[in-house]
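Progress note, project year one: complex with zinc ion.
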Amino acid sequence: MRLRFLLALWMAKLSIPALKITKHNGTNYPGELAIKICPEFLKYVKKPKRIITVTGTNGKTTVSNLIIDSLESTGMKVLNNRAGSNINSGVATALINGVGLFNRAKYDLAVLEVDERSSKKIYPYVKPEITIITNLFRDSIMRNAHPGYIADFLTDSIPPETKLILNADDLISSAVAPNNERVYFGIDRMDTDVTECINLINDVRVCPKCGGSLKYEYLRYHHIGKAYCEDCGFKSPEYDYVAKDVDIDEMTLTASDKGGSMSYTLISDSVFNIYNMITVIAFLREFGMSHEEVHACLEKVHIVESRYQLTRAGTVDVVVQMAKDRNALACSRAMDYVVQQPGKKEIFLMMNNFSDEKKWSENTCWMYDCDFEFLNDEDVTHIVATGPRGKDYRLRLLIAGVPDKKIDFVSDELEAVEKLHFEPHTSIYIFYGTDALALMGKVKDKTIALATQYTERG
Amino acid sequence: MKIELLYPGVANLYGDLMNVRYMAQCTGAEVVETGIKDTPHFTYEDIDLVYMGCTTEKGQSLIRDAFRPYVDALDQRIDEGGVTLVTGNALEIFGQRIDNEDGSSEEMLGLYNTYARRRMMNRYNSLYLGMLTDFEIIGFKSQFSHSYGEMPTPLFETIRGAGLNPDVTGEGIRINNFMATYVEGPILIINPLFNKYVQKLMGIEVPVLAYEKAAMDVYKTRLAEFKEPTRGFIY
Ligand SMILES: [Zn+2]
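Model obtained:
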C-alpha cells in the first residue's frame, strides 16, 4: 500500500508542471489521477493538523473564500481548494499541494469547501475539527432530490468528533448530525421579514417533532426564519452568534455573542451575503479571535459579485443576472432580488440548460417550484422568453398572472434581443444559466449595442 | 367545484403543487388543503378532485400514518367513481410496502398489491412518453424507487421510458377513477389533453383550459422532441 500511495503521489505531483504548461491550473487532474492509482489516497496523504470544512447548498464558496482571506490577512498559511473543485478529487488535489514529495505536511491548517454529495467519499479520511454548514435548500431535482436527503447524507458522513457551526434559521441543516457538538448562528428579526411564506418552495412546513403546522415568529424566504410549533412546543435553536440591527441603508450590522458584540460594515446588501457574513464571524470567533480581530479581518476582505454585472448602455442599464439553471430556488432568489431593484425593467429569460438539451430534453419540473410570480410586477414592463424552453417560460409566466401582452417568445436567443423595447432610463435584466456563458456574452453584447444605438439616438 | 389538496405540508416536491393551482385556474374550482392532523374533506363533503403529489421518504411514512384511518373512505370514494390523482412516490403510500436497501421494510396502506424497492444511492431520471386512450402523455420521472409485485391495471401504456418499473410497459395504477402515476411535476399543465380528460371525469362536459394556446404549444413542442428517436431519454 505504501508503495502504491507514493507512486500515486509522485505521478500526481509530476502532472502539476505539465498542467501548468498547458494552463490547466484549476483542474482536479492530480487528485483524480492519485485516487485512480491509489483508491484510498485520501486516507494516506498527510493532512494539516487543523481542518475546517465548509459545506451547504448556497454560500459555501463565498464563506470559504472569506475565511481563507481573513486568516491569510493575519499572516497565516492556509491550504485550500479554492482554485479547484469541491469534490473528492478537488480535495485530493489541494492535499497533494500541501505535502512534500515524501508526504510531509507543509501546512498546519486547511480550509476546504466540500460538496454535500461528496461527503461520503471525503469524511471517512479527512476529519475536520470544525464543519460549517451554511444552509440546505432544494437544488437539482435530478441530483439532489430534496434537502432532507442531503441532510441525511451529511448526518451519515460527518465524523462524530467534528464540531458543527450551523444556521439556526434553517431547520434542515441545523438538524444535521444531532449528536455532534454544535453552535448556531443566525440573523435576528429584520424589517423585511414576514410571518407567512410567500415562496412556492418551503421545505419545512410541518413540525419535525410532531407533524403539526409550523408557525414562524419571522420568516425571511422559503424555510429560513425562526419557527415554533404551537402543538408540542418545538422551536428553532437559540443563537450563539447573532446578527442584529441589520441596516441596509447604513450598511451595518451588530454581531453579538456571549463574549460581547461589535458593529460591522456589511459586505453586501443581499440577505444571502449577510448570512455569509455572520457565518464567517461565528467561525472566526469560534477559532479564537476577538471581535476587534474579526473586525480588522473583515475590513480587508471583500466578495466577488460575479453573478450580477451591470453595464451602462446609452440611458439603459444592461444587467446580466446568473440564475442557476434547473434550480428553482436560485432562480426564485434572483427574481426576487431583481424585482426589488428600483425602476422599470425588461426581463430576458434564457436560463435553459444547454447540455441537457443536447443529451435529452430538460426536466422543467423546477419551473413550477420557482417563483415566476415575482415577475408579475407593474415595474416589469416586458419579458422576452427565449431558447429551447422559451415556450415553457411563457406558459409559466401566464400561470403566474403575467399578462400575455407583456410576454414575447422568440426561439433564437440572438434574434430575441431585437424584441426588447429599449425604453430610455430602464434596466434590462438577462437571466442566464451556468452553462450558457458564451451565448450569454453574445446576447449581452448585442443588447448593449442595440441599447446604446436606440437610447443615444432617441 | 372543489379540489382537495392532500398534505401539501409534506407532499410538495418537484412542482407538483402547481397542478392544483392550474386546475383551479382552468375550472374555477375552490381548493381546500388538508394538513397531516386534519380529517380529509372528501370523507365528509363532495370533492370533485382529490390530489396528492411527491413527498420525501419520511413524508411517505408520515402520510401513511395520517391517512390510515381514511383508507376505507378512499375505497368507498373509488367505488363511487370519485376522481383522485396521485403523482410521484405518493403512489407507493397506497401499495403494500416499501423495501429499503438495508433489508428493512415499511408496511404501507395496501390499496393495491404492488410494493416499492428503494435505492437511495441510485436515482432514476428519465423522460416519459405514454398513451392514455387515444392521446399521448409526456412527462418526467426522478425517483429513488420503482414498483414491483402483482401488476394492476395501468394508467398509461408506455411508449418510451419506464413503466411501474423499467421492465414493464404499464405505467401507473388505475382503479375506476383513482389514478396514480410515477410521472411527476406539471403533468396537468404540460398535458392539455390529459387535463381535459380529468376534467371530463370530474363531470365537466366542456372542459376549458387556462392559456390553452400556450399550453398546447408546450405540449406539441415536447411531444415532437420526445418522439425523436435519437434523443436521449435517461439523464
Ligand atoms: Zn410540534
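The helical segments of chain B are 18-27, 57-67, 71-79, 187-190, 192-201, 212-227.
The mean pLDDT of chain B is 97.
No further modelling is planned for this target in the current period.
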